[in-house]
Design brief:
Blueprint (H helix, E strand, L loop, with lengths): L13 E2 L4 H17 L11 H8 L23 H14 L16 H5 L1 H20 L3 E3 L5 H7 L4 E5 L11 E4 L3 E11 L2 H8 L11 H9 L4 H7 L1 E8 L4 H20 L17 H8 L14 H9 L15 H18 L2 E7 L3 E7 L5 E5 L5 E5 L14
Parallel strand pairs: 2-4
Antiparallel strand pairs: 1-2, 3-6, 4-5, 5-6, 7-8, 8-9, 9-10
Helix pairs in contact: 1-2, 1-3, 1-10, 3-5, 5-10, 7-8
Amino acid sequence: MAEQPATFAPPSPGISPVNLSDCIEDLLHFTLSTYLQVPPLLDLGFSKDYCSRLLQLDEADPISSANRDCGGVPAYPLYKPLARAVERSIKSGSLGRERRSIDLIPVDESVKAREKEWNELIADKGSEILNMLEGVDFELHVQEPYFSQLRDGRKTVEGRCGGNYSRITPGAVLLFNKCLLFQVQHVNRYSSFYEMLKVEGLSDILPGVETVEEGVQIYRKFYTEEKETASGVFAIYVSRLASQPYISLGNLLSGLGYDGVGGLLGMMHTAGTDSNALPPPRSAIIASSKKPHHPNVKGCILTNGARALAKHVNKSSEGWWGYFSGSDSNKNRIASEVINHLVDDCCWMNIHFIKPHECVFEVRVHEGYGARWSADGTEFIGFLEPYMEGGYSKGWRH
């Protein structure tokens, strides 16, 4: 079935070449979703919760992650920035992570040693995906529930109104919904959808539809009767190919494991890192810093972020934290600007265990300044000075 509702005909089939950048998000979403379905189509080796988190939306953050592909804490849904990182890695043939170390914070050498293995995996599986996409002749989009029926093998015939679909011939490779490959077995032409459904039957074209009349009405949502009469109708028989890009992508992800996927999302790995953790939603970490520091004190509007900034503003001799003065409202504004800078421009992120806070989410910018939250981002812990020799004994003044 076509992807556009109402009385508009679907667009002509897309033709090759298929660009990785145009389909990587849909392909990754499908790969993760197939692992979560019952039974799963493939085993990624991750926990179900981990994959669900990658697909999770952040309804409190209205800005799409597509607009935040240039660093900082990745926006939800995490699969989108992950998809772009996978794309860059495939095109470069390596993990593609710009590793930015922070002075005096040692990186886990065991993870660093695995990058050669990861690079070989990316080059291998990435080449498989690119070769499959290069072999595509046409792209088609199918709405639900018909796409799921194609995926599960219950639907084997795709009905389309003529026009440019006449270019689709036996042997052609079709990419459905940017993620599933099928090959055309043969094509039958009819004068109308009614004739097609009467001759071909309903079970392979529109599984679950009980009458030909009902089937015609489904197609009428996408094609006018005039279009049908003028162009004719095609019944395109397809079979699913054994080699699929989502399988290669799944093998790539499972080979990278938690550490590699975390690296693609910009996470660092040090002693005490929780490899299974993912960065919390941006909305949560920003909101927790804006909570009132004394919620039960009437008239007190100073936020957690502003209270924490008051402790740090005089520690930097270079005045990195800025000029902190004025009313509580002004201090809240300044603290909010600092938080936004750290969240948007951090080059170092980690979720690790540290006393007395147990597991924390930590970010730092390239100068070494940063902040910490609880692992889920709901509790703002405070700001951080750059690491330095004897920092604790010096009160982190520098």
